[in-house]
Write a structure and sequence with these properties.
This protein is of the alpha+beta class. It contains 1 helix and 10 strands, in the order H-E-E-E-E-E-E-E-E-E-E. Strands 1, 2, 3, 4, 5, 6, 7, 8, 9 and 10 form a 10-stranded antiparallel β-sheet that branches. Strand 9 and strand 10 form a beta hairpin. It is elongated.
């Protein structure tokens, strides 16, 4: 009788240990699959970003506004700036200091409607893994020349800096709108 109990106990331990080992291996396989899925998603996103850059079809959705020397503010309005076929379209708020007088209820926003840009420069930085754009456009609300710099990373995160003449620069953080 003791011999039978001993044999059954040993058998039970072997079966339980085998089941535990299989579950442990299964969990490790799942983790690898998640890592592979994440890597695949990053690869697809990078490909979609590069496709937008190669087509010169950029739509940047602003998520925060960063005035020079001021406090960063979240953007809840859904502001965008578009650069499609060397034409810029935007209506962005301006928060900052002006060096020239503004009279009455003058609109100080940064605005352009399907406007041809000048001196467009584009460069990819392998070190930063991002693409830089530099161009100029005329602000339609104040009739001033603005310098605009985009910095678009491979993960679709973007930094935008607009420097109107006669006013402080204002920065925006956002994301490149991509479909993949």
């Amino acid at each position: 009788m003791r011999y039978l109990i001993l044999v059954l106990s040993a058998l039970l331990m072997c079966v339980t240990n085998e089941g535990y080992t299989q579950n442990k291996n299964k969990k490790e396989t799942t983790k690898l699959t998640r890592a592979q899925k994440k890597a695949e998603k990053e690869r697809l996103l990078k490909g979609a970003v590069m496709e937008c850059i190669n087509k010169d079809s950029l739509i940047l959705v602003v998520t925060s506004i960063n005035p020079l020397g001021g406090t960063s503010m979240r953007s809840t309005e859904g502001y965008t700036i578009r650069l499609v076929n060397n034409k810029v379209t935007c209506k962005l708020p301006y928060h900052g200091r002006t060096n020239t007088p503004m009279f009455g209820a003058q609109d100080v926003s940064l605005r352009a409607t399907d406007q041809q840009v000048s001196q467009l420069q584009k460069e990819y930085s392998k070190d930063d893994e991002c693409t830089y754009y530099l161009f100029y456009f005329m602000n339609e609300s104040t009739n001033e020349r603005c310098e605009c710099i985009f910095q678009i990373y491979n993960n679709a995160v973007s930094n935008i800096k607009i420097s109107p003449s006669g006013r402080d620069a204002v920065g925006f953080k956002g994301e490149l709108k991509v479909e993949y």
